[in-house]
Amino acid sequence: AVPCWLPTGCRAGVVEVERSVTAVLGQDVVLPCRYRAQEREQVEQVTWLKRGPAGRSAEVAVLHRQHGEHVQEPYAGRVLRRAAGALEDGAIVLRN
């Protein structure tokens, strides 16, 4: 998801994600996330979280426009950005 704070009255784009993604054990899976920006909007950062027991979340990866990608250690080498370029496409690939 792409969380953001906007002043009251500002228009924002739409985050598009799949409600459900099917994966096959041992194969790569794409976790899609696309932001349909309004005029003059630009995505600065996309943060991927894994929801764990009791609703707690753990950070998996951060995609940042200027600072690049940072994947947390348990997921290093297994999480990749699907496409280079603007972060309006914030999809990741979870390998194997």
Automatic annotation (TrEMBL):
InterPro entries: Ig-like_dom_sf, Ig-like_fold, Ig_V-set, Nectin/Nectin-like. One of its GO terms (biological process) is homophilic cell adhesion via plasma membrane adhesion molecules. The keyword Nuclease does not apply. Its main location: membrane. Residues 17-79 form the Immunoglobulin V-set domain. GO terms for cellular component: adherens junction; membrane. The keyword Membrane applies. Keywords: Disulfide bond, Glycoprotein, Membrane, Repeat, Signal. Pfam families: V-set (PF07686). The gene is Nectin4. It is found in: Membrane. SUPFAM superfamilies: Immunoglobulin. This is NECT4 protein. Gene3D superfamilies: Immunoglobulins.
